[in-house]
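Example (one chain per record):
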Amino acid sequence: MISYLFSNVTLDLVVQSDTVVFHGNQDSASSKLLFGKVILKVTKKTKISSLRVVASGVTQFWFAENSIAQYSVSTSGRDVYHSEIIQVLDKTEILLDGKKTPIYLEPNTYEYSFIIKNCGNLPESVYTTYGSTEYSLKATLETSSYLPSITKQIPIYIGRIPYSGPPTFMPDDGPNDILKKFEEKLSVKLNTPSKYYSENQTIDLVADISLMNPNIKILSVGARINEYTTITDIKNQNTKKFIVKMISSEKRNLDSSKQDSKFLDSSEFGFEMVLPQAYKNIQHDIETDVFSVSHQIHFDIDIEIDGVIEKLRTSLPLLVVPNEYFSEMLSLPKYSPKTEPADFELLPPVYSI
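Predicted structure:
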């Protein structure tokens, strides 16, 4: 704030998109470009020392585990702390360099475009209680040795759509279902219309229960989405931190006295589960050297049989992907192998290099 009070220049940083999404795994994805520009509004002739843009990314984690000495007779141990800070991205683009040859800007509005090349092996953005991978873009203008620099910083997000097969094929999508049989009790079929979902989307879960034992009474049914995160200490691969976070849940208590013979044949339950919109409330499914994130839908059934209450559970895997999966991947034509040699070589799209 002080820098603006004594400066004749205001600075703004604009990007075409604050999200970079790679297509493919870390070892196969092509680089992608981040386009942006710095806007300078000069109100009085000003000497410019430098104008630069820095793209940076940091992976860090911090957690403790209870450790007991190998030959100790004590059952209690001491906390061993694990932490690391890793610079995963550090790129600088010089837009103006007035340190050797003086640069003076007259009153006007100036735009300086830049392109940041991001390698396809960058780890995806992730945010957890015990660690994160976060990226930012920072523009810095230096005008005078006695005035502080003028800066603006914005967050950048790295996502990935991994391939489930050869790089030329897109990940398959379609109905996601599973059938679980509990011997001599009941069977449950879970179904969702898709395998892939993103932030702020609604998952329509259908659970079809078929009873095998007429003496069973269903007391309650419930569905919940859990997020499973594993943090691995890169210096000791056997040291891990496991985090389980419940994203969404719904439970329904049933009146077992109204469960007639028709109910015993088949009963279907529908759940609408909305994924959070905010970035820090839900993470994408990822697999990096440090972070692993996955999601599952758990369906719980409380039953009573011969006066004994039992809890049954079955699960359905869920893939949480960037929104770009639906805007980019599904709009592309399906792959078909060439049957005849082409007379020319197809160039890759402009966003892959």
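Caption: Residues 2-67+78-161 form a domain with the Immunoglobulin-like fold (CATH 2.60.40.640).
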